[in-house]
Amino acid sequence: MSPENGSEKSEINATEGIKRRRPGRPTGSGKSADKRDLLLDTALKLFSNFGVAQTPLSAIATEAGVTPAMLHYYFKTREQLLDVLIDERYMPVRASMGGAFEMHPNDPVSALTALTQRFIDVSLLHPWFAPLWIREVLSETGVLKQRIDARFGSKERQAAVVWIRKWQDEGRLNPDLEPEFLFISLFGLTLLPVARLQHDIRKGDTSLNTERLSRHIAALLKSGVGSGT
Predict the structure, then answer these.
(1) Given 79, 83, 163, 175, which is the most exposed site by the fewest CB atoms within 10 A?
(2) Torsion of CA 137, 83, 119, 161, to 10 degrees
(3) Is there a single domain that holds both residue 206 and residue 171?
């Protein structure tokens, strides 16, 4: 093989490596990776507090203590930044909440109770999750929701609805429940209170806690609001 051919192969391999590299992925040292993670963390914080549409890239750079040029080095556009956030932060967290229905295939109340507990646990582990979901995912006009739907569709939501209808057909779940409304109700039972809990905790008020919230949700799912007598 001639030196020229070897050089051409090296150039091709290098080009392919660049193409395979994930968007926003740094090529340098660990410090570059740390800076990139800082920018992602900062974006999540600002997006959850103010919304995606209301947060310019310049605000993320300022909050992170870097120049706009530095931010642009890692993320050329807001769309690219959103895609990286979705792939590396949001989707793994959402995936960690799966499996509750499969674990309780014949007990929908236990399945739904387990699902709500996962909402609570994940929201405590990732403080950005509950406010971001409320602001950007529950809302039909949320920029993040639109981006996720455009990329992944609604297969997971449709699969969950299938489970609810199956349990209703089997007589295991109240037939008057509307599957789509049920999930909105579950989000309201968990994510809204957790977001409030996080706010109260930051202010030093710990009178409400997640243990009490979990008991409250379990009681509602198992017994409703009646006295039980």
Answers:
(1) 175
(2) 60
(3) yes
